Amino acid sequence: MNTNELHKAVEESKGNESNICQICAIKDGAAVYEDCWHGYTTSDAVNVMSVTKGVMSLLTGIAIDKGYISDVGQKVISFFPGYQIKRGEKTIYDVTVEHLLTMTAPYKYRSEPWKKVCTSDDWTLAVLDLLGGRAGITGEFKYATLGIQILAGIIENASGKKLIDLANRELFVPLGIPEHKIHGDSSKEDQFDFLMNKAPRKNEWYSDPKGSVTAGWGLCLSAGDLARLGDLVLNNGVFGGKRIISESYMKEMLTPRIRLGERFGNMEYGYLWYKPYSGREVYAAIGDGGNLIYVNKELGVSVGVTGTFKPAIYDRVEFVETKVLPALAV
User: Which residue from 27, 70, 107, 204 has the least number of CB within 10 angstroms?
Assistant: First the structure.
């Protein structure tokens, strides 16, 4: 398969590839492939869903490098000195930043209470109310999109800066990613539109009524932006010859901490980044709709894929390996 055949295959797909908007691949610091579908251009942005979590991990590394966070072992509650802990709650005192990054933090719910959190005035505090529980710290993996919101509050409280400003200055602009603005609306109707609308989005990040970005979803990027973030990971925190994140954090971020179950394809998990294959230097930040940052250190290539919302797409890494990489002959 060559790139023309790849374009046609995506264009004519009636299955999982039918929602793909853009693909971009970078090798040796330069784009070696860029393509678009459904009327998108290379500069258009897409809500990359849970790929946002992978970006949050990078921003956590920057916060640690700058001394805003001492280390991943720092207790979450130390960043919220005015927070009133619920009577009888003890587990929350033991939860660390690392628990959030590895999705092993405990929460007092069976399924994520989206309505409760996303209709509140302060989403970070609403999620903080859910942290802890009688079971204590078990080390069990619990995928929690809402839980990552606490990371946004941690970084903002620790740095005294809005996360959107920190992201622009320390990560996006140095990588050639356009400056982003907060989305600014968080009504029920707007949240639904933000998820389901298939039109290109602005360079924005969804936000709560307090103007804090949604840490687990809602960042809008192009495939080129995703590939640049992948190139940063590929080069251990260096982009364009400039160090953006320390090598030590990047190594820790990609080191697997837990093996996931069948629901997550038996992949391994580091700090909000997946390791799809044991024994291989391949890493990924993965979101609904098949949004993806794919990093292959063996071949020295990073690939970004964007797609509009489409449920139950679990094979995007396989798609990159079996169709994109062969088309590039890398």
Answer: 70
Domain locations in the chain?
A: 3-66+157-328, 76-156
Find, among 23, 54, 25, 32, the residue nearest to 302 by Cα.
Answer: 25
d(CA 199, CA 166): 27
The answer to whether the CB of 51 falls within 8 A of the CB of 292 is yes
DSSP category for residue 110? S
CA distances from 48 to 54, 118, 235, 289 (A): 11, 19, 22, 8
Predicted TM-score (pTM) of this structure? 0.97
Task: State how far the Cα of 113 lies from the Cα of 269, in Å rounded to an integer.
Answer: 24
| Homologous superfamily in CATH for domain 3-66+157-328 | DD-peptidase/beta-lactamase superfamily (3.40.710.10)
Q: Indicate the average pLDDT of the chain.
A: 96
Instruction: Read off the amino acid at residue 254.
Output: L
How would residue 185 be classed by pLDDT, with cut points 50, 70 and 90?
Answer: confident
